[in-house]
Amino acid sequence: MKKNEYKVSVIIPVYNVEPYVKDCLDSVVNQTLKDIEIVCVNDGSTDNSWRVLEEYAARDSRIKIITQANQGLACARNNGIKVAKGEYIGFVDSDDWISLDFYEKLYDNAKIENADVCVGNVKSYINGNTQPYFNIEHFGIANDKDKKRIISTNICWNKIYRRSMIEEHQL
Predict the structure, then answer these.
(1) Distance of alpha carbon 144 from the chain centroid
(2) pLDDT in tens, 94-125
(3) Cβ pair 113, 160 in contact under 8 A
(4) How far apart are the first and last CA of the chain?
(5) Which residues, in sequence order, are CB contacts of 38 under 8 Å at separation 6+?
(6) d(CA 127, CA 163)
(7) Percent of the chain clearing pLDDT 70 (strictly above)
(8) Given this model, what pLDDT does residue 4 score?
(9) Do the Cβ atoms of 87 and 10 come closer than 8 Å?
(10) Residue-wise pLDDT tens digits, 88-101
(11) Given CA atoms 77, 34, 97, 111 in this order, what sign does their dihedral have?
(12) Which whole number is the average pLDDT over 24-45?
């Protein structure tokens, strides 16, 4: 397999999220950007989350499953990065879902801007109401000052990151 076989590798750490993981996977599997790889890292789940992953992987060849003893979110993401083959890497938490055009918009903007990092807007759902989590529209980031500011935010799941940047800076 070529290193950049996909446009985007989506890494989903999974730990005991059986009630939510189907919604998450449906939102990723049905992306308008079809040239994606979906790397699910089962981080030692003790519920039936792993069975849900296996069901989806049996239906969609883009889904790869890594199973490991529980090591925590950061380790699960890092192990996902090690096997990912995409030009860009994105993350989705397994109890979240994304809009169906999320990765297409991020990828298209990243390519237009030749960006190492591209950021998408986020909304939270609290008691059935939608609210902006913060107000950033899809945009690309190419300069080092903005890159450091955006990468250092406390969330990674509203962005895609160029693989070569991750490797170069050993992120």
Answers:
(1) 22
(2) 988 899 999 999 999 999 999 999 888 766 65
(3) no
(4) 23
(5) 9, 10, 12, 25, 28, 29, 60, 62, 63, 64
(6) 37
(7) 78
(8) 65
(9) no
(10) 999 999 988 899 99
(11) positive
(12) 97
Q: What is the DSSP letter of 114?
A: T
Give the pLDDT score at 146: 53
Q: Are 85 and 4 in contact (CB under 8 A)?
A: yes
- Measuring CA to CA, which residue among 135, 103, 93 is closest to residue 37? 103
Q: Is 131 helix (H, G, I), strand (E, B) or coil?
A: strand
β-strand 159-162 against 122-126: which pairing, if any? Answer: unpaired
The pair of structure tokens assigned to 16 is 């005991």
Q: Compare 158 and 128 and report the one with higher pLDDT.
A: 158
Nearest to 67 by CA among 85, 91, 86, 83: 83
In whole angstroms, give the CA distance from residue 164 to residue 116: 8
Helices and strands in the chain: count of H runs, count of E runs: 6, 9
pLDDT at 134 over 50: no
DSSP code per residue over 38-97:
EEEEEES-SSSHHHHHHHHHHH-TTEEEEEE----HHHHHHHHHHH--EEEEEE--TT--
Given pLDDT bands bounded at 50, 70 and 90, which one contains residue 41? Answer: very high
